[in-house]
Structure formats: structure tokens, C-alpha cells
Design a protein that fits this description.
This protein has helices at 10-19, 51-60, 71-75, 78-84, 98-101, 103-113, 126-133, 159-170, 239-250; strands spanning 2-7, 27-32, 42-43, 65-68, 89-90, 120-123, 140-144, 153-156, 182-186, 197-199, 204-206, 211-212, 215-217, 221-224, 230-231. It has 252 residues and is an alpha/beta fold.
Length: 252
């Protein structure tokens, strides 16, 4: 089996490392890959958001399976594109990927499905966002709606920080079009963990919990990053809590 892994970060390195352990895999390609990945996969100089370039390569090389790591090509519909051309690919459809690609979409879906989430409002107008901030308890969280490489979330301890966050996203365009709309939500204090799962729309197969560390400095200080490291399983996710997540978050 010939496999193409799309992406070039630590996530894709882990995917390549694991896929290489399969006896059913004869060749692995990675686009665009990185120096570390090149030890186990052939590097393809095609960027992850070049959907047509990736499609052309996959068709030419007759890929048996494509595995997509980054969110950006998923939200742009790479799965739909590949499947419409008869190629097997692992990942959510473009519509399903909006859960990750738009925080406003995800929050509205949670509200509609009765999934527990912090209170929030979304804004496309800077003045309305600032007016809303002035009436909220602090600290408060300001998020760029779109993809921002894990950096589009700001926990604001003062009103001034909140207004500055809104201006960075909506006026200064620090995250490009991802900040054209912002989500302002209640700040929940506690230990964070991730509970991920595979699904085909009917069946849910949960993975081990994990906990990543996003703040750039020790002691959870400084701005958020795409991730400063992670470990799994997360001790905070007990068997009871995992079942609660399954029943109240994943199954609805």
C-alpha cells in the first residue's frame, strides 16, 4: 500500500512514524514534510493547502490512501475533492471540518445539540464586540473565529486587554481573515484535557485522552502557541469523566 501524509509538523511526523510500522504499507510520501520525516518518508515539495497539486500527485502516483494532518486543507474540502476523484482519504468532509475551522460554527452547534459549553456571543462588528465586553465579568476569553495555528485565543484579565485583543483580531488583522469574526466567551478556570474520537457518523471509537501545554512560558504564562508539548493519557480524565464526555459531548 502506498500512503500519502499531508502536512509538515510534529503531528505528521507522528503519523508517518506510526504508519511506517504497518506491514501493509510499502511506501510513504509526505507533503511537504520536514527533515525529520525524511528519514521514513519520501518528501514531496507540495504545500498542504495546494489541493489541486496534491490531487494531481496522488492520481499520478496511484495512492492507495491519503492521511491529512492540518486543519486548513480539511476545511477547504480536500476530502471531498479526493473522494470525488475516486481516491481513498482519511479525514472529515469540508462541512464536518467546520467544527474546527469556525469557532462560531462549533459553539452554535454545541448550543443547538445541548452540549455543555461556556456562555458566549459572536461579533463581526468591532464596536458591538467592545460594548459587549464592557458588560461582562473578568477574566474573559476572546477568540478569532477562524484557523489561527493555535494562537487565536486570548485570555483577558482586564477590560483593556479584552479591547486590545478585539483590535488585534478585527482591526490589525493579526490572524488575517480568521479574525474578521470573533467569539467572546466566559472564562472557565480549571485543568484542560482533550478527548478525541474517530467516527463514521454512526459509530464512535474514542482515543486515549491527552493534555497539551499551549502557553509559551513555564507556569502557563504568556500567549498561547500551537502547542509546547503534550502527554497522554491525561490523569485528570478518570473513567467516570471519560464516560461523561462520551454521553454528554460525543454522542449527541
Amino acid at each position: 500500500m502506498k500512503v500519502l501524509v499531508v502536512g509538515g509538523g510534529g503531528r505528521e511526523h507522528a503519523l508517518v512514524w506510526k504508519i511506517a510500522q504497518s506491514k501493509g504499507v510499502s511506501k510513504i510520501y509526505c507533503a511537504p514534510g520536514n527533515a525529520g520525516i525524511s528519514r521514513q518518508a519520501s518528501i514531496v515539495p507540495i504545500q498542504a493547502n495546494d489541493l489541486n497539486g496534491l490531487l494531481e500527485f496522488a492520481l499520478k502516483e496511484k495512492m492507495d490512501l491519503t492521511v491529512v494532518g492540518p486543519e486548513d486543507p480539511l476545511t477547504k474540502g480536500i476530502v471531498d475533492l479526493f473522494e470525488s476523484n475516486g481516491l481513498s482519504i482519511f479525514g472529515p468532509s469540508g462541512k464536518a471540518a467546520q467544527i474546527e475551522g469556525s469557532k462560531a460554527f462549533a459553539k452554535e452547534m454545541m448550543r443547538r445539540c445541548g452540549i455543555p459549553t461556556s456562555s458566549y456571543e459572536t461579533f463581526k462588528d468591532r464596536r458591538k464586540a467592545v460594548a459587549y465586553l464592557k458588560g461582562q465579568k473578568l477574566p474573559i476569553v476572546v477568540k478569532a473565529d477562524g484557523l489561527a495555528a493555535g494562537k487565536g485565543v486570548m485570555v483577558c484579565k482586564t477590560l483593556e486587554e479584552g479591547i486590545q485583543a478585539v483590535d488585534q483580531m478585527m482591526v490589525d488583522k493579526a490572524f488575517g481573515e480568521a479574525g474578521s469574526q470573533v467569539v467572546i466567551e466566559e472564562c472557565l478556570v480549571g485543568e484542560e484535557a482533550s478527548c478525541l474520537a474517530f467516527t463514521d457518523g454512526k459509530t464512535i471509537l474514542s482515543m486515549a485522552s491527552c493534555q497539551d501545554h499551549k502557553a509559551i512560558f513555564d507556569g502557563d504564562e504568556g500567549p498561547n502557541t500551537g502547542g509546547m508539548g503534550a502527554y497522554s493519557p491525561a490523569p485528570v480524565v478518570t473513567g467516570v469523566l471519560h464516560e461523561k464526555v462520551m454521553q454528554e459531548v460525543l454522542k449527541p
